[in-house]
Amino acid sequence: MTITQELGSQGGICQDVIFPPGDLYSDEPPLESELHLRQIILLLTCLEWLWRDRNDFYAAGNLTIYYSPRQLKSEHFRGPDFFVVLGTERKTRKSWAVWEEDGKYPNLILEILSDSTANTDKGLKKEIYQDTFRTPDYFWFDPYTLEFAGFHLVDGEYQPLQASEQGYLWSHQLGLYLGVYQGLLRFFTPDGQLVATPEETAQQAEQKAQRLAAKLRELNIDPDTI
């Protein structure tokens, strides 16, 4: 529906200003804090960089999932803070409507806790993700208290995940660990290596090059001539 607003202009002439239809990217409330935003961006960046050669997944943050049996976007919707769907096309979307995506629900969901959402994330949303979405992996994380928990769907019910010796929780769906590193939630490989961001990868490469150059100079070899 277009919205027409009548405004007075100079000379007493009225103009009709027509605003185009809105197309919200999410029906969720605004993010709780800047830290919530940083956490979502970090997870998205790391996973998309790690899987940069894959085109069979979709990851998003604070995006609405519509799941109405009547295929209506006016009812039955939720917007997880972060979710991943496997076995689907990697492309830009404005929302995730289950009936437009071959009936697929997220394989992994993460909620970032806050004072205003913790009870819902641990209660109602957990029930929906378990009983309706049937999402295999569900996690929650509080970036302020560092509370971190994870669950895996077993026989239709979420069972708590047991932490590794490093305190990481295993995602069966992603084949990766999740764990707290420097106050934020990060991905780790099966052997416990931190999944780096593109910037961290570049920094590691630069440090490696500097160490190699230093070693060559110790051998009286000018690295610039190689």
In a few lines, what is going on in this structure?
The protein is α+β, with helices and mostly antiparallel strands and 226 residues long. 23% of the residues lie in helices and 27% in strands.
- Overall pLDDT, averaged? 86
Task: List the quaternary state of the chains.
Answer: single chain
Number of domain units: 2
- What percent of residues adopt helix (DSSP H or I)? 10-25%
Backbone structural class = alpha+beta
Q: Evaluate the radius of gyration.
A: 23 Å
Q: Low-confidence stretches at least 5 residues in length (pLDDT < 50)?
A: 1-25
Question: How does this structure look, described?
Answer:
Residues 22-177 form the Putative restriction endonuclease domain. This is Putative restriction endonuclease domain-containing protein. It comes from Chlorogloeopsis fritschii PCC 6912. This protein has helices at residues 34-50, 118-122, 124-131, 198-218, and strands spanning 3-8, 14-19, 57-60, 65-66, 77-78, 82-86, 96-97, 108-112, 137-141, 148-154, 157-160, 169-171, 176-181, 184-188. The model is unreliable at 1-25 (pLDDT under 50). It folds into 2 domains: 26-195, tt1808, chain A (Alpha-Beta Complex), CATH 3.90.1570; 197-226. The chain is of the alpha+beta class and 226 residues long. It contains 4 helices and 14 strands. The longest helix is centred in the C-terminal third of the chain and has 21 residues, at 198-218. A hairpin with a 4-residue loop joins strand 12 (169-171) and strand 13. The strands form 4 sheets. The chain has a 6-stranded mixed beta sheet with strand order 3-6-8-9-10-11.
